[in-house]
Hints:
Elements: H1 2-28, E1 30-32, E2 38-40, H2 46-51, E3 70-76, E4 83-89, E5 100-107, E6 113-118, E7 123-132, E8 151-153, H3 167-170, E9 172-174, E10 179-184
Amino acid sequence: xxxxVYMRKFANAFVMIAMMSASSLAIAQSSTDENGEAxxxxxxxxxxxxxxxxxxxxxxxxxxxxGALQIRANIHNVVPGGILKLELFGERxxxxxxxxxxxxxxxxxxxxxxxxxxxxxxxxxAVVTYHDKNGDRRLKKAWNFKPKEPYGLSNNPDIAxxxxxxxxxxxxxxPMAGADIDIHLVDLS
Length: 189
């Protein structure tokens, strides 16, 4: 009989600890702006919590399915640590913020890394990627705007001069069965 009482007390204590840690997690994810008003901060994804990186559910890559309408990008020259970011563009407003169709951020792993992006319809697309080595969610650039972190583009164009790539150099056709592409990261630093 006494053991049941102790088990109940233990269970109640466990529930109280879980409730306190959940509320402290919610408090940790809220902050205030410069006017002192409460601002809700987006919760980290499970992967973000596990890796200690600022990754959110909206950043997740899609599950790779051979033959599905998706881009299966195999990213080469990746080293572990930081975030691997991929952005999907169509021809319209290529490389502009408003032209971005999708953004994916995943933890960077050693070796070739497969990242998949589901598509709404077949068509011509381009993928731009970079390895955010320190995980601050920003591409480091030199004074002349050259990337200081490894980056890559679909079709791996060789851009010799200091200019942005053209969609005609990076775009590729994606049929109903999807497309498998290879992107080789280039480190100019």
